[in-house]
Amino acid sequence: MLELRRIVVIGAFGVGAACGLRTDPGGGTGIAPACMDNDTDGTPRLGSCANPFPVAYQNGETFEGNIEGCSEGQSWCGGSGGEDYYLYKPHRGDVKITFTPVAGGVEPILRVVRVPADTSPCGNGIPEEDTHVCTAITNDDPSWNFYAGGVEWDYYIVVDSNGGGTGPYEMTLNYGIEALGNECQAKIPVQEEVVRLGRGGSYEWETDLAGSTQGRLDGKCGGPGTEDLFIVRMIEGGTLHVGVQSLDGGMAPVVGIVRGPGCAGESGIRCEAGTPGGYVETEISSSAATTRFVVVDQTGITGGRYLMTAWMD
């Protein structure tokens, strides 16, 4: 049974907390006014980038907020309007974020950014590979996920908006493989052809990954951009090798072997990440026939053509 905890996050609209949609003094200088996302006493607004809401590791924790304030960051999917920041520090595996439609609310933009532990994304350019999620949230597709791993990183969950969009929102956080379930099976493109390999057999596939588009899979090697998923049946015991070569010098390839077609990063068995235009390879052994899922991903959102080769010995 899920534990439920509801948090009402009082930010710009709270009693006694006047948000800094104020401008700096010295008007008339011809310089565009700066948006100062502070309370009346000059401290950063709770929920701003400099003073994010804390997130506890508790299943079913629900946050209700209101998108207002300054725009302190954006990424490839937009996000030039007000935003709220949440700091997630437990560093524990898969995180599922689900938005609930709210009367009078806006369709928010969700961004999840990774920064070195105890640092801040405020005012900093975040590399593509460190923005794990960047997507508009719709009522038809309200749930997204990311993988948090390693005490060397902090993760900021940002509820963002496009310019001028304000209104209430509600989101719920759940954790682990169980929270993600198998819902991604209908959302990730799986190649129709099942790859069957025995010792001495090989298989090649050449195609393109789309660029500037959010993918569904995230894991220990990252991979915010679009991905492809292959079903590989090892018809006997042996070692499965999988290599991915970027063919056009664009994307930095990621190759992974996972236990199933779901979204969970925790289901990953092996993964390797490469450099732009590079080659990556991973392998796994089995003493008997088995089925594995192979992921071809990218560390950023560049997209591009790749060649995947799988073989057994």
Percentage of β-strand residues: 35-45%
- How many strands in all? 21
Helix content: under 10%
Mean pLDDT: 85
Low-confidence stretches: 1-5, 10-33
Q: What is the tally of helical segments?
A: 1
Radius of gyration computed on alpha carbons: 22 Å
Biggest β-sheet, characterized?
5 strands, mixed
Could you give the order of strands across the largest sheet?
A: 1-5-12-7-10
Instruction: State the end-to-end CA separation.
Output: 45 Å
Shape: elongated
What is the element string, with H for helices and E for strands? EEEEEEEEEEEEHEEEEEEEEE
**Helix/strand class:** mainly beta
Note the topology.
Elements lengths: L4 E4 L13 E2 L11 E2 L16 E3 L5 E7 L16 E5 L3 E8 L9 E8 L14 E6 L6 E7 L3 E8 L6 E9 L1 H4 L14 E3 L4 E8 L18 E7 L3 E9 L6 E6 L9 E6 L5 E8 L3 E9 L5 E9 L1
Parallel strand pairs: 1-5, 4-6, 13-15
Antiparallel strand pairs: 2-3, 5-12, 6-11, 7-10, 7-12, 8-9, 8-11, 14-21, 15-20, 16-19, 16-21, 17-18, 17-20
Which key features would you list for this structure?
single chain, 313 residues, mainly beta, 21 strands, disordered N terminus
Structure report:
By secondary structure, the protein is mainly beta. 1% of the residues lie in helices and 43% in strands. The protein contains 1 helix and 21 strands. The chain has one helix at 177-180; strands at residues 5-8, 22-23, 35-36, 53-55, 61-67, 84-88, 92-99, 109-116, 131-136, 143-149, 153-160, 167-175, 195-197, 202-209, 228-234, 238-246, 253-258, 268-273, 279-286, 290-298, 304-312. A 5-stranded mixed sheet has the order 1-5-12-7-10. A 5-stranded mixed sheet has the order 4-6-11-8-9, with no helix packed on it. It is elongated. The N and C termini lie far apart (45 Å). The model is unreliable at 1-5 and 10-33 (pLDDT under 50).
